[in-house]
Amino acid sequence: MDMEEYLYSQVLLKEPYCVNAYEKEKSYLLSLEPKRLLAGFLETAGLPTAASRYPGWEETEIQGHTLGHYLAAVSQVYASEKTELFGARIQMICDTLKKCQRADGYLFAWKEEIFDRVEQNQPAWVPWYTLHKILSGLLLAYQLAGSQTAYEIADRLGDWVSRRTAAWTAEVRTQVLSVEYGGMNDALYDLYRLTGKKHHLEAAMQFDEVQLFQKIYENQDVLNGLHANTTIPKILGAMNRYLITGEPYYFTVAENFWRMVTEHHTYITGGNSEWEHFGEPDILDGERTACNCETCNTYNMLKLTKRLYMATAEKRYMDFYEKTWLNAIVGSQNPQTGMTMYFQPMETGFFKVYQEPYSSFWCCTGTGMENFTKLQDSIYFKEDGILYITRYLSSKLRSETGDLLVQMDAAFPECSRVELQIGTSAPFDRICLRIPEWSQQGARAEADGKKLEVMIKNGYLYLDSEPGKTVHIHFFPKIRAHVLPDNPRVAAFTYGPAVLCAKLGTALMDTTVTGVQVKIPTKSVFIRDYLILEDETPEEWLADAEQNMVRNQDELSFSPKGIKGEKMVFVPYYRQHGERYGIYWYLYKSGSKELERRREDLKQNHRLMRESMDLIPIGNDQYELAHRIKGENTLASRLNGVNYRQIQGIGYFQYEMKIQPGECFLEVVYSSEDAGSTFDILVGGTLLCHERLAGKSDEFYKKSYRLTKELSGTKETVTVTFRTETEDDYCRIFKVLYVCKKTEEAEEEAK
Q1: Annotated domain spans of the chain
Q2: Under a CB-based contact definition with an 8 Å cutoff, are residues 118 and 175 in contact?
Q3: I want to staple 474 with a disulfide (CB 3.0 to 4.6 A). Which of 91, 303, 444, 636 is the partner?
Q4: What is the DSSP string of 116-165?
Q5: CA 3 from centre of chain
Q6: What angle do helix axes 184-195 and 198-206 make, rounded to 10 degrees?
């Protein structure tokens, strides 16, 4: 298809909630100092700096990624408004980067040796990922803001990448592609589209992960254990390759991947992942925690969805886009502060946690900048004299000269009634409106109070475009229940496109830190995550969810009936801020054995949460780097979708872990496959034990080690080392490494 999207400047949003979100993001962008985001580039180039780096991630090896996102975001604002204020920032950034760029094209906020480390299998925090963000920002500065300087920098940077990738051996290439590299293939395909240089195309292909693509092409769901925000951009690159070369293989890869993720790895909000990783297909209830649904994943999934839609015009893509955009994107921003989220917990009882404006600079801070400066994205498309309207937000569509083409007024968020005013000079013959999947009674069109006879085909309603005419479109939202594939007694509720969540109060809303300075919510209070049904079975109650979730009179909120306990109020998730919430709920009949088991499970989980001192998701580079990983002859990989870190032969790896004075326990997960393997465990440099694994019947099992007061000492952190001393030694640890308080369970396991 030759579908096109209208320019950002042609779409004016009027919906108040979205207007506020956009203005909050603009204010945040203007409050940031570009010279501080540029400091690392200037220092690396040996040039004087006018300011210090921002703290947080901008003081680590990933510094520079924020500048890429920032440049993209301010370019999107400029494309919408053409304001000189943002144009000047773009020019200042690009002029400075030009000064920092080496003669051979290298441009980065860290010395080139960081790329050497990746090739040599030494710890390094994702330089290719960071370079992708820088290159993408430059390309948008050229495409949206017309910066010729940005084009020249990107062109020369692409030349440097081309020379480096051309020198890779097969072994080096495999090693590089094993470390998160973002959408380097995607960005380089974009660059090739602009430059036409063959070596830019060849460089892009170096980042195409052929083995992964082939499995997905064959419809093998191999996502279990893969880092989600590493994987999705790879597929964006595959889709881009299809759009450039026309190779149908790559379209199939993108389509199959999208279907796998959306049908088997996605929560009701449209988000995916737990601790940044995909799990097993259709295992979603089992992975609900405080660390679900990294917002970067959603940002990239929507980019992929849009490309698939523009290539096919298939309605299903925009059904997913609408749901995900409203709940997982709009819902990720605090409407009072404009700050955005990293994780979006799916476990009931947690709350939203946002970035600190001038110290976090997480990956999701950067994608948040982009998300909220393109809220008008993917509403209006055009193709062969047809206007496609795919989402329903109050807005104006204008010609490039400013003439009104369409004005849309919509009842947001339920979108039950949409008014279209067609401009007098509209350049299209027909208007094609997506009938949302949530409007299961279809759609009705009226003009002058009379029903219109319209064509409905492939999930679209077609209108003849009559200049000056006003048309009303009616959709039919209702309450729907959605159960999880691995537990049909766990349900979430939607009304139209809006996911609903229960308000659960503000008690003890403390946060903790995970990964590299990422704030997450705690749940130090006991919170019930189930509904007790008075009379009906869960199946009966859910089958009549539309009647059992009663709408309150004064607002868009609902309360369940036929349940025991205090009245609960469910509201749109995207508007829920500053309070604990619950999207998913277990349903049990009063007095059932299942209810009693759940009560006991909750008590146990609550106890474990209180007792954990520190944990490391093994093989996750961000979390391992946050714990100051060091090692020799060590690598991370996966077994049956489970992450592990290993030593083979003589080597070691070690972490710094939080600890509290007094006796505690180290909990390690092993594989039964490794029975007979031998290695040492040291704590604070002192030998804890010489381990020889006996193995267990379970595929994976946990073993606890007592850390005495003599070992743990009085420090706040302790070094935990796994070491092998002979060529015959072997060590692998799996899943999560814990330091826990003394408990009866740990005592028993440590015997």
Answers
A1: 7-172, 210-228+242-333, 382-474, 482-590, 613-750
A2: yes
A3: 444
A4: HHHHTT-----HHHHHHHHHHHHHHHHHHH--HHHHHHHHHHHHHHHHHH
A5: 27
A6: 170
Q: How many CB atoms lie within 10 A of CB 620?
A: 18
Residue 187: alpha-carbon gap to chain centroid: 19
CB atoms within 10 A of CB 248: 9
Cis geometry, peptide bond prior to residue 413 (ω within 30 degrees of 0): yes
Question: Which H or E run contains 184?
Answer: helix 184-195
Q: Kindly report the number of other CB atoms within 10 A of residue 360's CB atom.
A: 22
Question: Is residue 132 a contact partner of residue 203, using CB atoms and an 8 Å limit?
Answer: no
Q: In terms of Cα–Cα distance, which of 260, 257, 328, 321 is closest to 295? A: 328
Say if CB 405 and CB 426 are below 8 A apart: yes
Give the position of tokens 């995550």.
Answer: 529
- The domain 613-750 having CATH identifier 2.60.120.260: the answer here is yes
| CATH C-level class of 382-474 | mainly beta
Task: Identify the residue with better confidence: 735 or 653.
Answer: 653
**What number of residues does the chain have?**
751
Distance CA 406, CA 426 (A): 7
Residue 745 has pLDDT above 60, yes or no: no
345 half-sphere exposure, CB direction, 13 A CA radius:
23
Residue 105 has a CB neighbour count (10 Å cut-off) of 18
Q: Cβ-count burial of 596 within 10 angstroms (0-12 exposed, 13-18 middle, 19+ buried)?
A: exposed
Span 339-387, pLDDT tens digits = 999 999 999 999 999 999 999 999 999 999 999 999 999 999 999 999 9
How many CB atoms neighbour CB 672 within 10 A? 14
Question: What pLDDT is stored for residue 438 in this prediction?
Answer: 97
Is 472 exposed, middle or buried (CB count within 10 Å of its CB: 0-12, 13-18, 19+)? Answer: middle
Burial 269-300 (b: 16+ CB within 10 A, else e): bbbbbbbbbbbbbebbbebbebbbbbbbbbbb
Residues above pLDDT 90, as percent of the chain: 80
Q: How far is CA 620 from the centre of its chain?
A: 15
Residue 737 bridge partners (DSSP) = 616
List pLDDT tens digits, range 475-532. 999 999 999 998 899 999 999 999 999 999 999 899 988 878 899 998 878 889 999 9
Q: What is the Cα–Cα distance from 535 to 187, expressed in whole angstroms?
A: 57
What gap in Å lies between CA 714 and CA 731, rounded to an integer? 29
Count CB atoms within 10 A of the CB of residue 153.
25
Q: What H or E segment, with its residue span, contains residue 601? A: helix 593-611
Q: Work out the average pLDDT over 533-546.
A: 94
Whole-prediction pTM: 0.87
Q: What does the pLDDT look like over 83-113, one tens digit per residue?
A: 999 999 999 999 999 999 999 999 999 999 9
Q: What confidence tens digit (pLDDT) does each residue in 225-235 have?
A: 899 999 999 99
CB 430 within 8 A of CB 386: yes
Burial-class residue 467 by CB neighbours within 10 Å (0-12, 13-18, 19+): exposed
